[in-house]
Write a structure and sequence with these properties.
Helices cover 82% and strands 0% of the residues. It is mainly alpha-helical. It is globular, with a radius of gyration of 21 Å.
């Protein structure tokens, strides 16, 4: 396995460039999860049907919870692989991969079954009936795409942990191009197909995520880089200790994402009670903010790989330096995003839908989204660096407090009680993200300073 991005020397001056080169393919792979929803929102919005856009917003926001839980369960694999391989334990890497494959497939099926069992209770969300009637069939198709997504995550994170980050990027790009093509055909009824609207977007979503998973699996089973790992992959001796380790570390990470994304989903439900125009505007802005978040999350994955690598090498100085460089990089990137949000707050909504009122509300929300870009970036990098240290419990508690004891109460009070509308709920999110960012930053540098290795 070629590991040029992992095995380069440990000179401090090279760490920014190494992190950057490691992160770019990971960022593109991470964004692929959001880009599927972005393409759906953009192309459904171009039909001019506000109800369809609202239904897409509802389904994608609710589905973001199970999808991010599944992704969270799998996330810990890359840093564990990086640390284990840096320590010279190749058999441990294979044991981790096999355990992760089994674990991720079980979780994808379990989450899917739970969601189907909950569908009859969807009316309790309190959304308009005509919106729910469009959203539910689309949501069911999203569920069927979970196994493909988790298959992709398994093999992508394995190779990411080894420093081979490009395959995940290539597969992601191809799968998303396929999604856009299928959306063009199925949503609008091109190339002889009937115009299926939102349902067509759901079919395209399912096919592209399935292809994404199969493509990453094909790289493992047929590429030169996967050759040294294939012979032991089908062994019947599953390492239950590794399986327990992945769940012990992965479940808290999934809970971190659950509580964070859950707060955003709860906010979407609050906004949904304010009408189709408000939820459509909310969906436009949350879709854009999700793209920048996933870019930062990709950098956080790269940070966790580098931190985990230096933990495996027992190098405290480089653990701290790789974390510092990650925080610096995300700060520059997210401040640039903030500037774009503020400058183009009127032009961005027009890309999604030609509705003046939706555009007006979305522009006001983009201002707030611009303010919380830095906080969002800092907190997600903090989570990534702490994953590299296998520190997952305290960050989970921080997440719960920041979002459910700060963001949601403040957002409800401003948005509902004081009747500030969607903007009030978003100010609550800004408060929660800022608090989380501060705590994650302090936590990483506090722990890394006390880090001790057995020599």
């Amino acid at each position: 396995m070629k590991r040029d991005l992992i095995d380069e020397d440990q000179q401090p001056g090279k760490q920014t460039s190494i992190l950057f080169r490691l992160a770019i393919p990971v960022v593109i792979s991470q964004v692929s999860h959001t880009f599927v929803g972005l393409a759906d929102t953009l192309m459904v919005g171009r039909t001019g049907n506000v109800t369809s856009l609202a239904a897409s917003a509802l389904a994608n926001n609710v589905f973001s919870i199970p999808i991010i839980v599944g992704i969270g369960i799998s996330y810990i694999l890359s840093s564990r692989i990086s640390e284990t391989y840096a320590a010279g334990n190749k058999q441990g890497c294979l044991d981790l991969l096999r355990a992760a494959f089994f674990n991720n497939m079980i979780w994808s099926v379990g989450i899917g079954i739970l969601l189907f069992l909950l569908l009859p209770f969807a009316g309790m969300l309190g959304q308009p009936k005509h919106v729910m009637d469009l959203a539910l069939p689309f949501f069911e198709l999203l569920i069927w795409g979970l196994p493909g997504l988790m298959l992709f995550q398994t093999f992508r994170l394995f190779f990411d942990g080894l420093g081979d980050t490009r395959p995940g990027m290539v597969v992601s790009i191809l799968a998303n191009l396929l999604n856009v093509l299928l959306n063009y055909v199925l949503i609008f009824g091109n190339l002889g197909f009937p115009a299926m609207g939102l349902l067509g977007a759901g079919i395209a979503n399912l096919i592209s995520r399935t292809v994404m998973g199969l493509g990453m699996a094909a790289y493992f089973f047929f590429s030169t880089n996967g050759k040294e790992w294939r012979s032991g992959f089908f062994s019947m001796n599953l390492d239950f200790a590794r399986l327990a380790e992945l769940n012990r570390l992965g479940i808290p990470v999934a809970l971190q994402f659950f509580f964070e994304i859950g707060a955003f989903t709860f906010t979407a439900l609050l906004v949904g009670r304010m009408g189709e125009t408000s939820i459509s505007a909310h969906q436009i802005v949350i879709t854009i903010a999700s793209v920048t978040y996933m870019m930062a999350s990709g950098l956080a994955t790269a940070a966790s790989i580098r931190v985990g690598h230096f933990v495996g090498l027992q190098n405290q100085e480089m653990v701290r330096l790789s974390g510092l460089r990650s925080f610096q990089m995300v700060s520059v990137f997210m401040l640039g995003n903030a500037l774009l949000f503020l400058v183009f707050r009127h032009e961005i909504p027009a890309l999604f839908i030609d509705d003046p009122e939706v555009g007006r509300i979305a522009a006001s929300l983009l201002v707030i989204a611009g303010f919380f870009q830095l906080s969002d970036g800092i907190q997600v990098i903090g989570l990534g660096c702490l994953r590299g240290l296998s520190d997952v419990l305290v960050p989970t508690l921080i997440t719960v407090f920041a979002y459910w004891f700060m963001a949601i109460p403040i957002g409800y009070y401003l948005g509902i009680t004081l009747n500030f509308g969607p903007a009030g709920t978003w100010w609550g999110l800004l408060a929660g993200l800022s608090l989380s960012g501060i705590f994650m930053f302090i936590r990483f540098f506090g722990l890394s300073r006390k880090l001790k290795f057995d020599q």
